[in-house]
Amino acid sequence: MNCNVPTDICFSFTGFQARGGATDVHADGWGIAFFEGRGARLFLDPQPSCASPVARLVREYPIRSKNVVAHIRKATLGTVALENTHPFMREAWGRYWIFAHNGHLPDFAPALDGSFLPVGNTDSERAFCWLLQTLRRDCGDAAPDHDRIFETAQKVACEVGALGEFNFLLAGSDFLIAHASTQLAWIVRQAPFAEAHLKDEDVTVDFSEVTTPDDRVAVIATVPLTDNEAWQTMPPGTLWLFAEGAPVRQAATVPGVRRSPAAG
Questions:
Q1: Closest CA to 160 of 99, 220, 115
Q2: CA gap 1, 67 in Å, rounded
Q3: Domain-located, residue 107
Q4: Which long-range contacts does 107-113 make (Cβ < 8 Å, 24+ apart)?
Q5: Consecutive sets of 10 residues in the chain, 264 residues long: mean pLDDT of each?
Q6: 186: left (phi over 0), alpha (psi -120 to 50) or beta
Q7: 4 CB burial (10 A radius; 0-12, 13-18, 19+)
């Protein structure tokens, strides 16, 4: 989720939590990261989110954030363990970076130089370390802006995406990048707000009662979280940059993919 004002994630998290072992097979751990200013809260649990006491804590905790990354895991490479649970977090250039991956990269073995190293044994964390190492190589000591981050992420998405399925989210405190290797969907909620009903739980919220006319919230998910809203599908092989609750840039990561007019 990427927003222009700090926003409560409880509604979307309710549907997300159910997919971790109740309405979906992704039962090998879950995690969520919230940015608050330059700080970040990270909650991880190798248990299924549908039965996780940590998930219940998050649902009951009144966290409001402009940028949130959440992940439910179906293990392909790497054991079911805390160190292999997404999202992953690193510090670079005096800021936190958050990364989550949905896919499979069985033959990805990058030459890591030691600046960023995986703690666990997943292909996902290796890809995160490689992305940050590439960004460090491209930028040196100068903190990258959104455009430089996006351009490096596009290069890495093209390179690594050729080796397998590489849907991912990369976030800092003021941006969210989404790569649709095979499947991602998104929606922007803004005035005039209406009711939304979850797919995975019988829960409805009227956003007009809990928002202001200036609020804007972008939600990105593998599969739409609600069944009465007009979600859009990201074309496979596209990279998207979201800021202040809206898509602001898009690029292809495979040859021949057309740019969608929905991104600025």
A1: 99
A2: 6
A3: yes
A4: 107/163, 107/164, 108/160, 108/163, 108/164
A5: 90 66 64 93 84 80 89 75 93 97 91 96 96 96 95 97 95 97 96 85 80 94 91 97 98 75 56
A6: beta
A7: middle
Distance in angstroms (rounded) separating the CA atoms of residues 78 and 96: 24
Helix (H, G, I), strand (E, B) or coil at 213: coil
Instruction: Return the pLDDT at 204.
Output: 83
Nearest-angstrom CA–CA distance, 145 and 192: 32
pTM of the model: 0.89
Report the domain count for the chain. Answer: 1
Alpha-carbon span 40 to 242, nearest angstrom: 18
Q: Is residue 98 part of a domain?
A: yes
CATH of the domain at 80: 3.60.20.10
The answer to whether residue 257 sits within a structural domain is no
Range of the domain at 99: 2-252
